[in-house]
Amino acid sequence: MRIHFHKTLGDLKERLLVMAGLAEQAVQRSIEAYNTRDLSLCDLVFQSEPAINRFQREIDQMALDLLAREQPMAVDLRFILAVLRINADLERVGDQAVNIAARARDISTQNNVDLPVDIPKLAKLASAMVRKSLQSFIEEDAAMANTVLTMDDEVDAMNRAAFTAITVLLQEHSELAPQALSTLIIARNLERVGDHATNIAEDVIFWVEGADVRHGGDAINSSQSMD
Amino acid sequence: MGVGIEVADLNAWYGSTHTLKDITLNIPANAATALIGPSGCGKSTFVRCLNRMHETNPTARATGTVKVGDKDIYRDSSPVEIRRRIGMVFQRPNPFPTMSIYDNVASGLKLNGFRNRKMLDETVERSLKQAALWEEVKDDLKKKSGASLSGGQQQRLCIARALAVDPEVLLMDEPASALDPVSTSKIEDLIFYLKNEYTIVIVTHNMQQAARVAENTGFFLTGNLVEFTSTNLIFTKPKDKRTEDYITGRFG
After folding, report:
1. CB environment B161-197: b (16+ within 10 A), e (fewer)
2. For chain B, which residues score pLDDT lower than 70?
3. Which of A202, A203, B193, B224 gets the highest tally of CB atoms within 10 A of its CB?
């Protein structure tokens, strides 16, 4: 039994989940900042970014050390590869939160107007995707991860609808451009958060089942050499 | 050129101990096939059945068929003939200690009655070159004994000795486990080169070595062949839970 190795894999998983918590919290705070125009929340999001970045580097290093020293195989190898990818996605989720917070700060200086984009609903959906993808990682549940993939379609559709609605709005009310464009960018940021959650879910499926379901393509398997 | 090996329903015993159970697999020609598994799993017994070395133990017996190329080695070949077609390299290098380097390599041919000096010279040079040892020993062929070489050189000498009789298959039972990393790399490089001309079957405890050198890998456990598939698949996505437990160190 490789007791130490498997304990270290557990440590790596735990570390990634701490980072995931920070990234998830940053998204929630950035949306809260948009909804409430609370600039102190924006500051909290900005402050969390260096911590998330530091976690990303630490986790990459832990994974690199494990690859070098333990030469993992099979499910352990897939796990470490998944962790490396999820790590990058979580860092990008943190970046999206920063982008949203920056837009929320801009909007807070502008007049409050009613716009035809339901950011709270989009944010709820994107956040739910992140939470579910992480839950599937915790529970090693490929079926749960699979449900995240279908949720992404709805987020994409809402983002496209936001673009159309804002385009129509600006044709008549160009004076609303600052708020409208900031809101559109936030919709886009949330759509990207959904994409990262999708990536995480795909990595969970890869880890648990060994199946590469990215880009909706057929599985690409290791080369066969039996003949 | 190498030939494929078809094994069907192979069973082997030492006394009353059933060490191989209904093994069926096809080993492709001109590729390296690795056999892995814990000690006592039957992998070494399996390779010894491929060149009828298993039967040299008085309590041993085997049933089933082993076809090397198109010949059933238990029915259509003598042990002497099959061991010429199938060379073997062992864990510990075993050169003939008192023989010169030259005589070590030429020994198989001489045993088979070859006496032509020019042909012997050519074969010794070719075999030592194939075993990547020629440059290191060419000036001492008849001056130095096999035992005077380093462990890694001795193992390459044993490979040259096996190649000299122009086999079709090379069986390697833990060929690098007694060697340092540099010598191990040389043996592994050699496997890559040699599989163009020979069929190679390598038994190894070192899973990374199997992963590095072999196209296909078989996992043995308690005399059963649990899984036999491409090396890429077995080390990334093995089908059988027992294989996964073994290669990820969750075994035992």
Report:
1. bbbbbbbbbbbbbbbbebbeeebbebbbebbeebbeb
2. 252
3. A203
